[in-house]
Amino acid sequence: MNPDDETDLPPSGRIGLGLLLLVGGATCIMASLDLGPLSSADVNGPPWLAAAVGGVFLLSGLLVAAGKQWRHHPLSHAIVFFILAGLAAIGNWIAFAPGPRVCRVEVPGLGSDPSSWMSGIGCRTAFGVGAVVMDGVLLSMLATGVQKRLGKGRAADFAGKIGEGVLLVCLSPILVPMVLILVLKSLYAVLREYASTGQDGAERPSSRG
Fold it and tell me: What's the pTM value of the predicted model, to 2 decimals?
């Protein structure tokens, strides 16, 4: 499917949704500055965290209001990069910054105490995987931008390979378990076949009429 053939929102819906995101983003940024109905004391974290959330909403509102005609504009690419950077900053703070983390996670047999150690580890693990993947995407985007700016050449190719390598390393926490599960599943199937027939399935006796 060609992305250019996708149906865009009608102008009224696009502008309405964009304004809603802009208002939400402005409210978060004002809270980080102790302005408006909320204050920095209402932020479950440092004030800059609310500013980062607000920035993501503001920039997303701008993209939505602009519509698909701005999809390939260089400015929209920059906005997308800063949106991802804001999300990465939030994820990295939740996963790696010092201090307790509270998430309500229902664990069978362990209850749902939000202050339990499982809750803190679950928060950091979930957001940590997402943050590392987001970091890899950002570095890959930077390397791709450098590659486009420099044009074809050894330096541009090197920058592109760095981005791809970083992204692959950052995705390894997800890819490695998936590959391991597939390998173990295949090994289990072979052992089960061998236990039931005495053969590994690669060679079967030919049937004779």
Answer: 0.67
